[in-house]
Amino acid sequence: MAKPKTDPNYKVIAENRRARFDYAIEDDLECGIVLSGSEVKSLRENTANIAESYAAVENGELWLVNSYIAPYERAMFGHEERRRRKLLVSRKELARLWNETQRKGMTVVPLVLYFNHKGIAKLKVGIAKGKKTVDKRETEAKRDWNRQKQRLLKERG
C-alpha cells in the first residue's frame, strides 16, 4: 500500500498543550496573524512560544498578547519579541468572540500556531472556560482510566 503524501508546507510551529488541561475548550477558530518579515523567517525556524499568551478583543480588533517569537539573527530590521500581534477574523466571528468574552465570561486561548498547506502562518484559538481544580482532577482520572482500559483490552483480547 502506498504511503500517503505529506504536505510539505503544513508545519506546526508552536502548540499550547497546557491550554486543554487548564481550560474546557468549547469551540475553536482559525485566525490569520499579521507578522513582519523577520517574524516569518523566525517562525520558519520553529522559534516561537504561545504557552503564556492570550487573545483579547479591544477596540473592535482581536489581538494576540504576550506571544514570543525569537529575533531572527540575519534580519536587517528586527522585531520586538513580545509585541502585540493583530489577529485577522471576520466581523461576524469578532462579534461572536466579543459576546462570548464580555457577556459569558469565556476566554480566548491560543491553541496552535502553524503554517497551513499554502504556507501561510495561522493561529488556532479556542473559546474556553477556565477549569477548577476538581475538574482538572476529574479529567486526569478519566484519562488514566481510559489508558488502563486500553491496556486491559490489549492483554485479554
Give a quick set of tags describing it.
157 residues, alpha+beta, 7-stranded antiparallel β-sheet, two-stranded antiparallel ribbon, 4 helices
Plain-language structure description:
The structure is a single chain. This protein has 157 residues and is of the alpha+beta class. It contains four helices and nine strands. The strands form two sheets. Strands 1-8-9-2-7-5-4 form a seven-stranded antiparallel sheet. The chain is globular. The mean pLDDT is 88.
Tell how many strands the DSSP assignment holds: 9
Structural class: alpha+beta
| Shape, per Cα inertia axes | globular
Number of helices: 4
The level of helicity is 25-40%
Q: What low-confidence regions span 5 or more consecutive residues with pLDDT below 50?
A: none
Q: In whole angstroms, how far apart are the ends?
A: 27 Å
Strand order of the largest sheet: 1-8-9-2-7-5-4
Query: Main β-sheet, in a few words?
Result: 7 strands, antiparallel
Mean pLDDT, to the nearest integer, reads 88
- Could you give the order of the helices and strands? EHEHEEEEEHEEH
Radius of gyration: 19 Å
Fraction in beta strands: 25-35%
